[in-house]
Amino acid sequence: MYSQPPLFTAVFFCLFALNPVLPSKADPGDLLIGFDYDAVNSFSQGVAVIVKVEKGRPQTGLINRQGEILFGPEPNTEIHDFHDGLAPLLQDIRWGFINTGGEIAIEPTFTKVLHFHEDLAAALKDDQWGYIDKKGNWQIPPQFAQANRFNQGMASVNKDGLWGFIDKQGSWVIEPQYQDALMFSEGLAAVKTEQGWGYINADNQFVIKARFERAQDFDNGLAIVNQADDWWFIKADGNDLSNKRYDKLLPFSEGLAVIVKNGRYGYLNREGEEVVEPSMDSAWSFNDGMVRIEMDARVGYINQAGKIVIPPQFKWGHSFTEGLAAVTVDYWKYGYINKDGVMIIKAQFDDAQPFHDGMARVQSQGLWGYISRD
Predict the structure, then answer these.
(1) What CATH number was assigned to the domain covering residues 179-241?
(2) Where are the domains of the chain?
(3) b vs e for 38-51, b when ≥16 Cβ sit within 10 Å of the residue's Cβ?
(4) Would you say the CATH fold of 179-241 matches that of 111-178?
(5) How does pLDDT run across 12-34, given as a tens digit for each residue?
(6) Is the CB of residue 162 less than 8 Å from the CB of residue 179?
(7) What pTM does this model have?
């Protein structure tokens, strides 16, 4: 999950062992869970994955928001992100699932698994993919060479070298006939033929003919496609969003998409207008109504109107979440600013990550803990 940082000193451990979980009424920046871990993930669905190194061996566990251990830590273990209340769990060489209470919900018996979506998860057993339910029972027995997650009641699977689509009972909705296939999204699925990528509907009719070198899923009525060195957005009727072409695109986030042309970054709105023409050294996707940009090796922030709200001045910075962003002035110490650029949590951490569920993971002297948003 992370590279192993140095272990803490005995003195530092003693300071925080006396009071690892600090007051329940916290102010911004107050330490909620002490610096006890060699690596941690952000909180999600009320839990977080932690790693402690014992005698040179990483051990993985799960904690709740009070810092209580729900599972482990155990060696030879990985826990991935939670989705639908379950997370893939690797123990030794087999995969299963763990729930947010720290209980193993599905014993690790599979070669590989995907996340649960629409109550089913793709699982690999004896070199064949099938789908299991949340009790670990086979809903669709292993029979496929490749399998993707369910969406809109269907999943794309590979059988005998060709791709088609099945329903939740494992019956063919669209027989295997394509060179590749993505999932259905907004009633359309990208599929690949000898002519390239196009989009079909649930009746297996081409709504957008196969003509692209690459294609992505539709999201809010738009999809990214590619031909040669050009990238652009198309609408659900197959028409282009605009006649402009770019070297790179990112999906829309909060109404704007990152565009790249000749090594410069800008933003496009859903009408195909360049809200910010490609002029910045780097740029990221919008989050929490703001976005970080980089100019002349300094990070700043702009709003959805394309106006610079916080001028580039930080050596590094993360995206805004829950009204705050982690930044560093000198690469050495991280703190958190608000949307006016005021340092709300003073620069004091060796590393700091965005807030999730009112908590943020921060690092000090090689170890990780969690601080409060409020």
Answers:
(1) 2.40.10.360
(2) 41-110, 111-178, 179-241
(3) bbbbbbeeebbbbb
(4) yes
(5) 333 333 344 444 467 889 999 99
(6) yes
(7) 0.86
